[in-house]
Amino acid sequence: MYANGGDAERLLTDVQEDIVAGGMILLGLVLTFSGEHWFATLVAVIAAFMGGFTTNVILSRIQADISITVAIIIILIASMLCGAIALQVKRVGVWLAGALGGLLASNLVYTQLLDAGGIQDSDVAHMVVVIVCAVIGGTLLSWLERPLERVLTSFVGAYLVVAGISHILYRAKASKGEPYWPSEFFGDLQHFECKGDQTCMILLLVWLGMFVLGVIGQTIYAHYTNRGPGGYERLE
Question: Is there a contact between 112 and 193 (Cβ–Cβ < 8 Å)?
């Protein structure tokens, strides 16, 4: 927990979160429909996002007695460090991007399966599943880098768009919650569900629809360009 108490415990103000949501939507659109073409740069951005978000979660969970300013500085340093490493060492960035994809997919599927089966969850079991799937996702993308780049970038990009829209709808009081916002989607591991929430279900369909359209769009783009995404020569 950050120092200063009350509303000051929030790392980001509402206005800052709105800006982040807008940035997530823009980045998500690029990632969904042109992710493979800009893969080297985008994995650095993803690595920076993961580094910053993970650092924020860690600081919150260990209840670090530090000011918001210090927390922001620590998170920014972690973000820049992860981004720089991913940019210089592409394979690290590729692994992190695959890990993020595995984490997103496992968290979504796991929570929905538990909800559908009425099974009681536990933080430990959930964390184990998410971590294992993140490792599998990172390893698979490193091993099958080119075939999976379109799928991963479209999936993660579509999530970012949906997360941003979810937050904006919540702030506009057009929905009861913001279930796809990172702090909600990853923070409340036991209670992510769309049961009885029409907006949540619509956003889930938007996520899946954008994912499919992104894969198709990137495939068409790669087919009709002289040079394939990521700088590779297009195979005829």
Answer: yes
Handedness of CA 42, 167, 15, 182 (dihedral sign): negative
Rounded distance, CA 202 to CA 139, Å? 32
Length of the chain: 236
Q: Are 138 and 98 in contact (CB under 8 A)?
A: yes
Q: Would you give the DSSP letter of residue 95?
A: H
pTM: 0.59
Q: Say if residues 36 and 151 touch (Cβ distance below 8 Å).
A: no
User: Smallest Cα–Cα separation from 178: which of 162, 190, 158?
Assistant: 162
Extended strands (E) in 68-213:
none
Helical axes 14-34 vs 39-61, angle rounded to 10°: 150
- List Cα–Cα distances, 142 to 47, 53, 64, 145, 152, in angstroms: 15, 22, 35, 5, 12
The amino acid that residue 145 corresponds to is E
Worst-scoring range by mean pLDDT, 5-14, 27-36, 44-53?
A: 5-14
